[in-house]
Amino acid sequence: MSIAAPVRLDAFVVFQCDQGYYMRGESRAQCLGDNRWNYAVPTCNIKRCPNRNVRNASKAPNKNNWVYQETVTYTCREGYRMGGRARSTCQSNNHPTNPSGTWSSNPPSCTRIRCPNRNVDSATKAPNKHVWYYGESVTYACREGYRMVGVATSTCQSNDQVRGTWSSDQPSCIRKTCNSLVIADGTVSPRRETYNY
């Protein structure tokens, strides 16, 4: 910033920084004559936005100093879902002497992906808990007298990094049975087609 044209004695000049820059020094100066001014020419410095890190997320570009019009993009770690906006741009706050810029949006959040709790009738599960997060596995075991239909172990996963889904359908436990017996020249009591365990 400089004064290019001649200015008459006692005249004032006003300085103004471009959008995205803040002023350091006085915003106006008075001509004292003999090429002397009552204040030095101020400087215009680019505004900076505070560095923001998001837990369980990476950012690109990966740096700590941000200036006007730069954009940061956050990506949640595998197994976490994003809430809010992934991209934010460093903007001017329109205050001519404030060195700090402002971000265009609040920082996002990354929360662990959860799968719905599943209980199987006539079975136990290990570990025995009710909240399941991405990457955790549950194993079901049928009670005595029951047999399992389906896959015993299932893992919490996600295909879209938003919703948690189990790696297999929920199994079921059905009662073990025995077929009816036939005895020559005799009877079986009680007479049934099948017998439960």
From TrEMBL:
Gene3D superfamilies xref list: Complement Module, domain 1
Domain of life where this protein originates: Eukaryota
Annotated SMART domains: CCP
Sushi domain residues: 1-46, 47-112, 113-175
Coiled coil (residue ranges): none
Bridged cysteine pairs (disulfide): 17-44
InterPro entries: Compl-Cell_Adhes-Reg (IPR050350), Sushi/SCR/CCP_sf (IPR035976), Sushi_SCR_CCP_dom (IPR000436)
CDD domains named in the record: CCP (cd00033)
Keyword terms: Disulfide bond, Glycoprotein, Repeat, Sushi
Pfam families reported for this sequence: Sushi
Record's protein name: Sushi domain-containing protein
Species the sequence originates in: Ciona intestinalis (Transparent sea squirt)
